[in-house]
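wait is this the right file?? whatever heres the structure
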């Protein structure tokens, strides 16, 4: 499928599943190397990162744990600019190596909020792993340790990312098609 219709919008293919999985494997190899001997806890940010987190974890070979948090800042195709914590962190992170697994970093506001929340829990270190980064939209000065893809400022869908909660199950990544 080179184009798909989701609700009232048309999307065209941007990245095939094979390309995404290849890059996820490369990111996992780097994490395995960098985190050897540390038993990190991965904190996957729901809902968008669940497919990325699953594919990443299947390629992590070092001892590790995973948990999930949920932050919300989106409505439709635009960010609301306000981050609301929906589901909190229940694990004891004191002295732990933490790797945040995020689907996409755009402005960086959601990640900044997440980093603030984690900072109060005394982790040994916090690392950020994002599937996608939109560098031209970044408004905060945050360090991303692992980025699979830098992409332009297009609205994307598929591989866990949604449009009004639809389209997450698409295997490939799609971008919003220009209106014709």
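ok assuming it is, sequence goes like this
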């Amino acid at each position: 499928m080179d184009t798909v219709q989701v609700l009232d919008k048309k999307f065209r293919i941007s990245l095939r599943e094979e390309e995404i999985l290849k890059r996820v494997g490369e990111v996992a190899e780097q994490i395995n190397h960098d985190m050897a001997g540390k038993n990190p806890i991965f904190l996957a940010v729901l809902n968008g990162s669940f497919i990325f987190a699953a594919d990443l974890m299947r390629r992590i070979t070092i001892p590790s744990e995973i948990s999930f948090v949920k932050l919300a800042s989106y409505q439709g195709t635009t960010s609301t600019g306000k981050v609301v914590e929906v589901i909190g962190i229940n694990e004891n992170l004191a002295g732990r190596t933490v790797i945040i697994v995020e689907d996409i970093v755009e402005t960086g506001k959601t990640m900044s909020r997440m980093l603030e929340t984690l900072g109060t829990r005394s982790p040994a270190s916090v690392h950020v792993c994002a599937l996608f980064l939109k560098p031209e939209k970044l408004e905060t000065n945050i360090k991303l340790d692992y980025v699979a893809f830098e992409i332009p400022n297009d609205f994307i869908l598929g591989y866990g990312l949604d449009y009004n909660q639809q389209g997450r199950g698409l295997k490939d990544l799609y971008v919003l098609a220009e209106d014709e």
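The beta strands are 3-6, 9-15, 41-46, 65-75, 78-87, 97-105, 125-133, 146-150, 156-157, 173-176. so i think its the right one actually
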